[in-house]
Amino acid sequence: MRSAVRREDERLRRLVDDLDRTDAPMAETWRRVAAAAADRGQLRPSYALVRRLVLARRERERARADVRQVAVEAAGTLLVGRVPDVSRTLDRLYDAQLEVAAAEARVGETRAAGGRRATGER
Fold it and tell me: Phi, psi (5° rounding) for residue 63?
């Protein structure tokens, strides 16, 4: 069985996004992704590649959850009739947004624009 899938294959990233469950082991996600790729007539991805994509997706989701948590805490403070510390809230929101941007950049490292590998290899 062939497993020469390129990192920047958007179809593979979408399969990982759709089939990964954070409570499931990465090996389970790899089995699901490999089976779905085979069903679609695509090449079977390696475990290492799927693992990198899963790690990046999970990190991105954790960072987005941090942003939501800051917003929920600020809204909760408003709902009980208090004014949140705007400076602290904005600082926390800024830090959380930086985490999201960093996670997105790491996801970008797994796929390069223009059909080239992120490492510069062809």
Answer: -65, -40
Tell which phi-psi region holds residue 25, choosing left (phi > 0), alpha (psi between -120 and 50) or beta.
beta
User: pLDDT digits over 38-75, tens only?
Assistant: 999 988 899 999 998 999 889 888 888 998 999 999 99
- Residue 61 token pair: 């989701």
Taking a C-beta distance cutoff of 8 angstroms, is the pair 14, 53 a contact?
no
CA distances (Å), origin 32, targets 2, 20, 85: 16, 8, 45
**pTM across the whole model:** 0.67
The set of residues, in sequence order, having a beta carbon less than 8 Å from that of 35 and lying 6+ positions away, is: none
Mean of per-residue pLDDT scores for the chain: 82
Residue 116 clears pLDDT 70, i.e. is over it: no
CB crowding 68-99: b at 16 or more within 10 Å, else e: eebeeebeeeeeeeeebeeeeeeebeeebeeb
